[in-house]
Amino acid sequence: MPTATTRLLSDMFDAMLVQLGPSGWWPANSPFEVIVGAILTQNTNWSNVEKAIANLRRHDLLDPERLRQARPEIVEACIRPSGFFRQKAKKIQNFLAFLHQEHATGMMDLAHLGTAELRERLLEIKGIGPETADSILLYALDRPVFVVDAYTARICNRHGLVPEDVAYDELQDLFVSHLPERVEQYNEYHALLVRVGKEWCRKREPRCAGCPLQPFLPRHSPPARTP
DNA sequence: GACCAGGCACATC
DNA sequence: GATGTGCATGGT
What we know:
By secondary structure, this protein is mainly alpha-helical. It contains eleven helices and no strands. The chain folds into two domains: about 5-25 and about 145-215, Orthogonal Bundle (Endonuclease Iii, domain 2), CATH 1.10.1670.10; about 30-140, Endonuclease III, domain 1 (Orthogonal Bundle), CATH 1.10.340. The structure holds a DNA duplex.
């Protein structure tokens, strides 16, 4: 017997998918490109990340070993459009050092590690926090890990499911504990939430008209009828 | 010109 | 443990 929350989360997913269609995430040509994108998109608009990725591709640097050995100034210049470029260049190198230590020539070489262990290892890398680690696990490595972010928190808060300042793990647990553990749905659910967040649930001015989730917004109790 | 974007680490209290 | 701040570019 599904709980009300289980049913709600499932219905919200269906409504978003019906109205918006499949998201096709993560837009990238390889698992490695997903990882670079996951770091570059931290607190940054995706369109800026696309510019940075294009620059890296132009320099033939979308390869772990070539990127690891590239001069820092070149890498920084490539990723400059995505902002925080010095920090992010360092973060990428931190990840590449980890990959190198693992004797991995590509992301799929990490397949022997269990999901929980791999998540812990990723979180040890300076510059990779919970959202980035989970994005890597789900979108680059097809692990059943639900990704949440600021949009997820905002939307779930508007729907009365969590407090505004909900912790990452708690928000993640909301979905994990109410949805079947399926990579495909985890993938699509996060993508749909981001798309809805961008379009209808912006920080200052939520525009609920036309939002696929509008029918699920908590109803205010109707005004008492005067007899 | 302010605000925001698919965060994170670090300092300080 | 909670809160504040630096990081930096580009679009709205």
